[in-house]
Amino acid sequence: MDKKLQTYLTDESVFFNELIGKRMSGNRIPIEADYRRATKYIPEDKNSDNELIDPYLYKIVQGDYIDELIERIAKQSGNALDICCGPGWLALELARFGVNVDAYDISDIAIATGEKMLLENPFPLGNGQVTYNCLDVNKINFDKRKNDTIYGFSAFHHVYEFDKFMNNCYNNLNEGGLMVTFDDIGYTKMDSFFKNLFLFILPTFELTYLDKFVRLFNYIFKGKLFSNEIYSPMEIYAAKHDVASDAILDFFTKKMKLEKMVYYGAFSVRVCNSISGPDWFRYTTSKFLTFLDKFLIKIGVCRGYYRIIYSTK
């Protein structure tokens, strides 16, 4: 492995260690740590970089898609391999449904968090279990066991030998096995239009209306764009080496047998997680925006920022 790649991998671990540490501060439990026990947290300071945690809002905006993903993998049952598991929410949730999950992540804090959530878990696991492993996923020993499901939740674009890794995943699957990928694939122009429109109109945690007008002025007269997108070191490295959403799509539709592909969240996820105000206002507005988002995707005006693909061997 060359020194540059090793630096990216080290920075990747540091990046997610810091991110998870921030999200877990104040004894909070984010959704990515435990889907059922996540604790509500509303940022009070507009200058704060702490992110909203709102399980009920999450259910409004993404719950249908995430619950379907959980149910589909649980239906497959057996052994599952979790690629880039993070703090382990999905591995833990699947274990509660009786799946035996082998979960991997490069962040030692993510793995420690997953183990802590598993230890504190108040819900029965039935016949399921989770084994958390702190390891660069590119070094997984695929000879350890065969799997019935391999999945990555915003994961496969982090690997640096994409073709080799994905072929190893394919060969590791039992016949009829399931592969699932959840990816954020970026905004189309229409997605961005509606996202920016509603972020400007609605009250938000991040910006005052004065801030918004200043940014609008800079965009109109100076051509300056502002982005809230944050990329991890390995996302940057992998993108430079052509591991993009198109490569993932090709694998899941050409190498595998496509079962289902879903797009959602053209603008609603980003906007709804930014809306400030009393709960009744945030939840009512979010329900409307989620409905509008689904409708605009259905008629082809928008595409969706998120994509979930289910494919079988």
- The low-confidence runs, each spanning 5 or more residues with pLDDT under 50, are none
Average pLDDT number: 89
CATH fold-level topology of the domain at 3-47 and 63-187 and 231-266 and 304-312:
Rossmann fold
- 3D shape: globular
Distance between the termini: 31 Å
Which sequence of SSEs, written as H and E, runs from N to C?
A: HHEHEHEEHEHHHHEHHE
Structural class: alpha/beta
Strand order of the largest sheet: 3-2-1-4-5-7-6
**What share of the residues does DSSP label as strand, in percent?**
15-25%
CATH class assignment of the domain at 3-47 and 63-187 and 231-266 and 304-312: Alpha Beta
How much helical structure, as a percent, in the residues?
Answer: 40-55%
Alpha-carbon Rg, integer: 20 Å
Largest sheet: 7 strands, mixed
Describe the structure.
By secondary structure, the chain is of the alpha/beta class. Helices cover 47% and strands 16% of the residues. The chain is built from eleven helices and seven strands. A seven-stranded mixed sheet has the order 3-2-1-4-5-7-6, sandwiched between helices. Helix 3 (89-96) links the parallel strand 1 and strand 2 (100-105). The longest helix has 22 residues, at 55-76. The radius of gyration is 20 Å and the shape is globular. The model has no long low-confidence stretch (mean pLDDT 89).
Quick tags:
Rossmann fold; 313 residues; 7-stranded mixed beta sheet; globular; 11 helices; alpha/beta
